[in-house]
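S1.2 Input.
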Amino acid sequence: MKSLLVSVNFAATTINYKLLPSLTLMKEINEIFPLLDKPINIAITTHQKPDADAMGSSLGFYHFLVQFGHHVTVISPTNWASWVNWMPGSKKVLDYELQRQKAEAELDKADWLFCMDFNDFIRTKNLAPKLASLKCIKILIDHHAEPDEKSFDYGISDSTRSSTCELLYDFILASGYKDKITTEVAECIYAGVVADTGSFRFPNVSANVHRLVADLKDKGLLHAPVHEALYDNFLENRLRFIGNVLLNRMEIFYEYNAALIAIPKSDLLKYNIKTGDTEGLVNYPMTIQGIKLVALVIDRDEERKWSFRSKGDFDCNAFARKYFEGGGHFNAAGGRSSDTLAETVKKFRQVIKENESLLQ
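S1.3 Output.
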């Protein structure tokens, strides 16, 4: 089933939206543009343990929408990393696990629900059943592959985009309200873009990304403070934890051009690792010459969480979906396992042998 491609032209800027299949009754996102200036109740949510792109797109959208007089609430399914607390509006975000009653009250009165940076309710953990039960209009803005189209009324689903923040920027331009890109909106969008592009080094960086950044800079964005808030905002224990991981938990399989990092629960406790402290860790082995696939698995309380990164033509999305109940992007994906750490590591060793020809 192929996606539809719709072009929206505004102020000589053409935005191509890859919309979800019409067979699912998904409506074109531009149909809501004329309704944006009519105040209603809006809820915005994202995936569990939101990263910079998830929180940036949610809060960037929040600051855009409140300018129309909407009542807007951002709800995170879980807690989030402390290094996104600098984002304007973060103190207003509701943590569903800690503030369930208040969050559900906001969801119950919502006329629109925007789902940012995820495309399947299962990505919202314990919030998923509540989202599925809502009768309001549900709108998807996301850049991951293979969305659950039937769950949304409107949608932008374009896996060629670098980030959901890039899609949000495109949405704002196409809606005709570019003048509402305030400092707060710009900072949030830039944070998500710089994080999901690996500071503009990943293959998902297009010319459109650089034009986006140039436009935000022209509007007065100070990019250095945002970059510092994202990357120079950790405690000493995290740096020592990374040293331990690279020295004792990293294994290189040169015969498969692959690397594995397996982190036991004991390491997380020893170094007092919090949500967000492992962000970016999977990228370190990618700096080793010849490595095409890196796998990171962390022993969490309820499951083992996988992250995969690749170079070139190795499909992390297909790999994660086939073996580790996950998915994501072509060169970056995630997964999970209910097996023990030792068992899921053993499985990885087996499956990279099966995929040896794809890693050469």
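S1.4 Remarks. The chain has two domains: 4-230, 236-359.
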